[in-house]
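agent> call fold_tool(seq_1)
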Amino acid sequence: MNQIEKQLSKKDPEILPVVTLERRAFLDAAFQAHLGAELAGDLSAIVATYSKNGHLNFNGVLYDTPEQLTAFHRDFGFDGQGMIGGLDGEILQLHHSYDSVIVEYLIRGTAKVAFGDAPAGGAVAFPMCVIYQFDEAGKLASERVYTGLGALLPQPILPL
């Protein structure tokens, strides 16, 4: 055990736990299970990656029942039926904390509805940051999504 691990083993509440290689592998497996279900467009499998009390918070809007989680993923376009078709993403940054995986993406797809200056049928791309927090069973306890859709909207209107 190195000096940092010895220090952390004292359970000092002001020191965050170390993300060991074993813990990182656990988090990566949980993240891959969720991401794999999303990439496959399998709504039931996506919802199954959440814990019993797990939730998704999308830019401040909470989805915390299986029905709401299913509707969100369908409406967004994960199964090809929502507002963005052909969803794909590039991971730009990926970080770990003891219970979370933090991912910065560039999301791409085809708008199935008009987004400001982006007409339906046009290609769209926008940034997204997601904090995936997992419980000890490897299920999503919390998925917090922050995205800037401003790139898809017309010029901002300043408040009066």
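agent> call fold_tool(seq_2)
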Amino acid sequence: MNQPIPVEASPAVTIAAIEAAINVWRNRSPAPQGNDEPLILCQQARVLADVYGLMIVGRHASVPLSSLSAAQLNALQTAFA
């Protein structure tokens, strides 16, 4: 079982923590399945995917928590609550 990642313990968040939170939200609220269904993420996973993508493109291993929007920070923190 995955251990919670304490995001408040550090002034930065790693790409691994963002990815883990996205996966938590994907498991809690999976995308609809079927040939005619669009592949969508729930709102929490979507806002985290935005920062995750920017981290990949920028080759950042971590970003300051202060750089996250309120929605991103909430999605990150509540993923492990």
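agent> summarizing second result for user.
Strands lie at 12-14, 62-64. The first helix runs from residue 15 to 28.
agent> awaiting next instruction.
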